Amino acid sequence: MHARDAQSGAGGDGEPLAAGEGISFFSVPSLSGNANDPEVFLKVVDEQASNGTFSLLHGGLTNLEYTITVTDTATRKVWQFTHLANTCGESGTIRF
């Protein structure tokens, strides 16, 4: 995940804060100055048994613009989602 501050134009890569079973939180210390400040959360859900896909649930705890890139390691197919700046609290799902 990569984030950008719309006001300054500065960008930075997300760094994982914590991970559990299928869930991760990311900070962007190069922009926030705080390596412990969660900005984005991601959760992977295995739905192969019901519909043959995985879902990536994501939520922004930030007003930063960020882009999530997902690569299927079996097929090498790539999906990207960009969360627009100044829309704190929005969430969504990427199915692959």
Features:
globular; 8% helix; 9 strands; 96 residues; five-stranded antiparallel sheet; mainly beta
Whole-angstrom Rg: 14 Å
Number of domains: 1
Largest sheet: 5 strands, antiparallel
Q: In percent, how helical is the residue content?
A: under 10%
What structural category arises from helix and sheet content? mainly beta
Give a count of the beta strands, DSSP E runs of length 2 or more.
Answer: 9
**Tally of DSSP helical segments:** 2
Order of secondary-structure elements: EEEEHEHEEEE
**Looking across the biggest beta sheet, what order are the strands in?**
3-4-5-6-9
Q: Give the oligomer, counting copies of the same chain as homo and different chains as hetero.
A: single chain
Q: Label the overall shape.
A: globular
In terms of per-residue confidence, which ranges show pLDDT below 50 for 5 or more consecutive residues? none
Structure description:
This protein is mainly β. The chain has one domain (2-95). It is built from two helices and nine strands. The strands form two sheets. The protein has a five-stranded antiparallel sheet with strand order 3-4-5-6-9. A four-stranded antiparallel sheet has the order 2-1-7-8. The protein is globular, with a radius of gyration of 14 Å. The mean pLDDT is 89.
